[in-house]
Amino acid sequence: MWNYEKRLQYPVKITQPNAKLAQVIISQFGGPDGELAASMRYLSQRYTMPFHVAGLLTDIGTEELAHMEMISAIVYQLTKDLSMDEIESYGFDKYYVDHTLALWPQSAGGIPFNSCFFQSKGDAITDLTEDMAADGAFP
Amino acid sequence: MNFKMSTEQENMLHDIGVVDFVTVEMTQYLDTHPMDREAIEYFNHYMRMKNQMMRDYANKYGPLSLSVADNSCKEWKWALQPMPWEGGC
Question: Which of A101, B35, B59, B62 is deepest in the core (most CB within 10 A)?
Fold first, then answer.
């Protein structure tokens, strides 16, 4: 189970709305390597992991949920209280027509969040290798 | 709904964030190094610190978690806390 703390892992205080920027940052929410995919990836893979790794993936997956909340706060604040003129000039109208200013997990290119963004194969090395690719680890 | 915070409240919240980050990272280290006594000491030190800071914050500004949400007042303060994505915290 989970407990919630009513605070962000790091504060988000945006003073200047920018829906153009929001359309890029939203990928870190609902895109293929975003925080929603990251948390679901770890929290799905953990069941078939060796004991200590299962505990680690639980705690990492939990932290990813906190990351998702920060990214969501960024997108929310970047698009808060926009006028129709601003929505059009920022090119945010294509998102707005389906979701208004609500949060909806998608990539920057508009592809909806999909569990095909990650894998869960039941083999520790295979899954950890996929985690490294998704989490931005490069040789 | 917008909530304006005092500098002191902002500072307390910032410090909780710093100390909590230590416990989160130490937890992940200890998941794969459960016999590292030095690391356990380190974790305990910061966890005790965080618990105290969470109680202090709750007494002054209201609870950030249900574990420190108990109060003898007539109002349920947990429900009155601002949502963190509104930019207050």
Answer: B62
- Give yes or no for a contact between A41 and A120, defined as CB atoms under 8 angstroms apart: yes
Contact A83/B at CB under 8 A = no
CATH of the domain at A54: 1.20.1260.10
A125 touches chain B (CB under 8 A): no
Q: Do B87 and A77 touch (CB under 8 A)?
A: yes
- Grouping H, G, I as helix, E, B as strand and the rest as coil, residue B70 is coil
Interface membership of A2 toward B (CB under 8 Å): no
* Chain B CA closest to residue A73: B85
Residue A6 lies in a domain: no
Could you say which residues of chain A have pLDDT below 50?
A: none
**Does the beta-carbon distance from B31 to A4 stay under 8 Å?**
no
CA B35, B41, B43: angle at the middle one, nearest 5?
95
Q: Which residues of A touch B20 (CB under 8 A)?
A: 9
Q: How many domains does chain A contain in total? A: 1
Residue A33 DSSP code: T
In this prediction, residue B75 carries a pLDDT of 87
Q: Torsion over CA of B43, A55, B57 and A78, rounded to 10 degrees? A: 120
Strand pairing partners for A106? A112
Query: Does residue A68 belong to any structural domain of this protein?
Result: yes
Output the pTM of the full model: 0.94
Whether the pLDDT of residue B57 is over 50: the answer is yes
